[in-house]
């Protein structure tokens, strides 16, 4: 039953026309400007004739784009047809859709509009973006996609069942029945699984440190310096604040020592400003976070000014990760992330947060319920690994001292030998790195933990393994150690790296390598018999 | 375990030599426009680059091995970091054979195996004769189809 082709919201014709119109208006400026410097025949006055023409053409193009952009929900695929001159028609099978995300900026919210993006596993970018439709239409699309996906799955399941009963081994377990029952009623209002309490939001804002927020202070400083120019490269207030503790009066002819003080004070200021900016960012992005469940999908919504919402199909989840930084560990909180193959390397995976922050034991319980993993009993790599980190960090400390010595030679820096103090931190750093390592070889999952600053505990079902690698660097070979890298299709690994158990004994690494491969095979065979997802939707 | 075709050493040595020559050109450019670099130093660096590159190529050829096991394609490779990788047949998305201009001159071909994995998602087996590459591609394709999983991603 192919339904009618839909268009975007009529208002988007206006914005598209204006956008393209502006592009059309500005294009003659650049072209004529560049050409007039090269060719004598080109007159700069042409701009005034060409710019209005460009504007009109741009508006025409924008309107044409609106009329040439259609999308339709059919029984098997979502079709998007676009392009004014070169047409592109794209059919996305429902089964391949990973995430459906809806975002609404401030203006969008005022006018009741929304941008819908669909993610699939292939390619490096969003598969289809509907920019923009009305709020109601976004909701309808989401429900419709969910309904169609469930239907497609049901068709498959029933045909599977026929095949199974034909071969005389039909066995529909109670679990399967119940999930299918849920899936056939996906239109119900989502059941609430988790809601971020104000205290949790506050703790999250205060304990998470986003390095991305470091650009805000820079932007602010650039803005301020352009407002009161004349202070040169470094704004006056930076020098002012550092002066009482030994900073230089001006940059010209300042001693190295006082310059270092200036750098330290500025870095401190910057960190504080970044911290504040990151806290504000966190509150704005995660205010009103709610996770629910609709059919076999997780649905979330969050955001104070810009609203984000979306759905993540449970059977697309590749792995589950618990994150805790030292501050969060101190106050006993942790976060939970679910990872799909949906996002390209460019787009941020921020919306994959299943639970931004909650008490640690609750989070671990959620993770266990969600993946059905047993409570992990972590094992550690051999103590030889710690020795390795000791050597590694000593080498880094030696480089720091060497740089200080080099500075002392080039400039008049006195007491460069104080830099030796960094060696004090070496044993502590090596120990902290070591004690935060852990792995657990479960029945159906491999659990990997590592990191002190950003401790991540990742639960990887053997079923989701793509490749297994044992890696040995020259240093590891001397000590008889090896690292085991387990790759999944999760797109999080672009920023987090492939889940790796570092510095195992070679024998253990090879054994784990074998276990991973074996259990993948048995999981695949098991899946072929029954079609359960292995993940539980009601994990809270 | 199967090793690569010996001629792949030529390709890798050539690659190393090219890197050494580029290094030499860069040093000469620095000598021209920035600070004077003694000719002996440039020659020494290039010679060292050539020797290291050749040694690296020979060693890489020695360690590179692969095998079709029951459930997975298994590879061993790497000079600095030695890597043993298993690519389960169920996870193979598609298989390519490729050959560049230099490989063509040497009569060699590569097989590239793609998985849905996010990093190093493609595994390349270089230095195969075109016939071997084709049979390997066909075998891998059959094994992948045979052991097809329901839904990986």
UniProtKB/TrEMBL annotation, chain A:
One Pfam family recorded for the sequence: bPH_2
PANTHER family listed in its UniProt record: TRANSMEMBRANE PROTEIN-RELATED (PTHR34473:SF3), UPF0699 TRANSMEMBRANE PROTEIN YDBS (PTHR34473)
Source organism: Natrinema hispanicum
Compositional bias segments (type: Basic and acidic residues): 177-190
Membrane spanning residue stretches: 21-40, 46-67, 201-224, 259-284, 390-410, 416-435
Region (Disordered): 148-190
Bias (Low complexity) ranges: 164-176
Protein name: Putative membrane protein
Domain of life: Archaea
Limits of the YdbS-like PH domain: 66-145, 288-350, 435-512
Record flagged with keyword RNA-binding: no
The entry's keywords: Membrane, Transmembrane, Transmembrane helix
UniProtKB/TrEMBL annotation, chain B:
Location of the YdbS-like PH domain: 61-140
Positions in coiled-coil regions: none
Keyword Iron attributed: no
Keywords, ordered alphabetically: Membrane, Transmembrane, Transmembrane helix
TM region(s), chain numbering: 12-30, 36-58
Domain of life, per lineage: Archaea
Protein's name according to its UniProt entry: YdbS-like PH domain-containing protein
Organism whose genome encodes this protein: Natrinema hispanicum
